[in-house]
Every structure is written in structure tokens, then in C-alpha cells.
Amino acid sequence: MENEDKNTKQLILEKGALLLAQQGIEGLSMRKLGALVGVSQAAIYRHFANKEELLRAIIQNGYGRLVSALRAVLENEHLSPAQKVREAVYAYINFVLESPDLFKAVLLQDSRPARQQVHSVRKDIGKNRETFAMFIKVLSEGMAKGDFAPADPELTALAIWASLTGLASRIAVERSMAPDLRNQLIERFCAIILGGLQYKY
Question: What is the pLDDT of residue 4?
Fold first, then answer.
């Protein structure tokens, strides 16, 4: 019974992300979600007290998966700082390709839970966001080793993150993009980012 409840809850989160991505916050309802999952509204309420709690859980679930993917790269001691940056770009894009609905639910929704979880353009972001703390550390290491030009690592992380989110958003929205073109865009993006990190003004 416990495993069945866990499976149902995970299915609710997955279908909730799909519904959220397709219809936005206004279109996310317990009734619609119940129909999509194949359970009653009451069954949804057994797992989530209200819509805001459900929305927060969908966003936290997606953000947690993204954090895990980035941690595997950014904390890999066998990679150089430049390699970590490049692989982090690919980890982020792969998350989008594997779960485009989840990405759109996590990062492209303007709701209070979404803002609390992922809105990030502010000072001292590394103190509040694990992804930024890891990325700032990698950039600082690269600058200390001379691999990257000296700069404010936090500001640099914010600039790269904003650019990467823009690229990921296009990939998530333009699902018909040819794989070859997509790969070329990602490679060119990496070249521009790494070139900028190494350039001394």
C-alpha cells in the first residue's frame, strides 16, 4: 500500500508538470489532474492539501532533479573547471530534453512557489541556491588557477545562468528543432561562454 501511494504521488507530480506546462497555473486543477492520472479528486487531496502545495511539490521535484544532474558534474574532481562548465551546460540541456514539461513547469511559470524556488537574479544568490553555490565555486577555482580571467564569480554565474536558461527555453519550446542544429547551437554556446571566461579585458 505504501509503495502504491508513493507511485501514485509520483504520477501526480509528473502529470501535474505536464498539465502545468500545457495550460499554465490557471489550467492546473485537482479535477483535471485527477482525470489525467485516472484517480478521483479526493485521491489528489489525500496527497496535497491544496493547489499551492501541489504546485510547490511539482517545482521542488523538478528543481531537485536538476540539482542532482548538475552536482554530478560540478563536484566531479576529475574534471577541470572548464570541463565542469561545459558538462554543466550539457547536463542542463539534457534535463530539458528529457523532461521539457517539467522544465517549463519549474522555470517558466510566474507563481509564488516558482519565484521562491527558482527566481535568482539577486546578490548573494549562492547563499540561497545550491546550484549557484556549486557553480560559483567552480568559477572561483578556475579564476584562482588562472584558467579563467579574474572577475566577480557570482555576477559571472548569474550571466551564464541567464544565457543558458534562454537557450534551454528555446530548445524546450521548439521541439521540432533538428538535432544537428541543436547540437551545433549547444557547442557554439559552450565556445562563447568558455571564450568569455578566458578573455582578459
Answer: 58
